[in-house]
Amino acid sequence: MLARRLSARWVLPIEAPPVEHGAVLLGPDGRIAAVGPEARVPRPADVLAEDFGDALLLPGLINTHTHLELTGMGSGPPEPEFAAWIRRLREVKATLGSETFLAAARQGLADCWAAGVTTVADTGDSGAVAQSLAELGGSGIAYQEVFGPHPDQCAESLRGLQGRVEALSRFASGRVRLGVSPHAPYTVSAPLYRTTAAWAKANGLPIAVHLAESPAESALLSSASGSFAQAWRARGIPMPAPLGRSPVQWLDEHGVLSVQTLCIHVVQATGLDIGRLANAGAAVAHCPRSNRAHGHGDAPLAALLAARIRVGIGTDSVVSVGELDLLAEARAARSLAGLEAAQALTLCTLGAARALGLDAEIGGLRAGKWGDCVVIRCPPAGSRLAPAELALASGPRDVVATYVGGRDVYRNSRPL
Ligand SMILES: [Zn+2]
What we know:
By secondary structure, this protein is of the alpha/beta class. It is built from 16 helices and 16 strands. The chain has helices spanning 82-94, 98-114, 128-136, 154-168, 190-202, 215-223, 226-234, 247-253, 271-280, 288-293, 301-306, 318-321, 326-337, 341-347, 350-355, 387-392; strands spanning 4-11, 19-26, 32-37, 48-51, 55-59, 61-66, 117-124, 139-146, 176-182, 207-211, 261-265, 283-286, 311-313, 373-377, 399-404, 407-411. Bound molecules: zinc ion.
């Protein structure tokens, strides 16, 4: 691969202050060789140099929660009743073949790159995202989902998961990691949580769980009531025991929470729950627009951050939020928790990398990290704003170019 030298009006390394008239040198190994003021970054003779003018150059954005196998399946706002919505989605998915999911995942990955997102933490059950990441040269963690609300299904569900992960291991690499996702407390039994978590730990696989998302999930675990409990009763599934647990407490008691665990949503969480997450070292994927679209309410983002929990921002799927726009999520997180622009930007770059345990490799512009970066045009007449404000005010259509491991994976052909 050719070395590249990119320069722009503003370079935002995230882990260092913004540099006006800065440059980044991407080495032939796909990693960052140098970052800094234009005059101090080397300009080797054989390098492909490009100056983007009045633009912002940032580390590639990191989306900590996607379902890219569902790309193209969004059709307006989700129906108001969450349990019915989940059921409908699973019915639709059951009618689709593997080629459909693969085409969706490839398109989803291309859409991410076009929106400046260079790493995804994706949950799904088709395996299509791991395959697409490997084939297209992407970066991400593909968490393979497992379901099974009846305790009697536990052994069979675990065997199925192990077989799927084994089959997907041919797609794993330094940039494509596999994980497991015991889906949610209303689709996974207590023994399946326990055995999946133990197996993942023994094999060094990270875990992602949808957790403390809806009031109905809390009602199932606290009092065997609400729409999920009704659905379980209708299917002859025994109620969780003992009752009286919060979703976070339930998973903690079943050995699921650790530094390798990414908890998605975490809306229905008390101070005690936040303490449990912090003690376990678990991370959170915060999805502000999805939480609102489903009427779940707002996550206690300020309290999560105050407890020094690692938090990254995620979009969730197109079925929940329509177009995936990570910077719109960052703006929503900012207003929710009263954050500075730079803090909000960190939640979808370095903070997200920390949440995924990948901050030694990605999340900032620093020599040695992967050459993942995005060039964003400055919004018109906005040049007096601080660069973090400019970045935060932009959207997918402002992305000019995206690089993964020093390779150009997206270029907007519209003139600057
Ligand atoms: Zn989700």
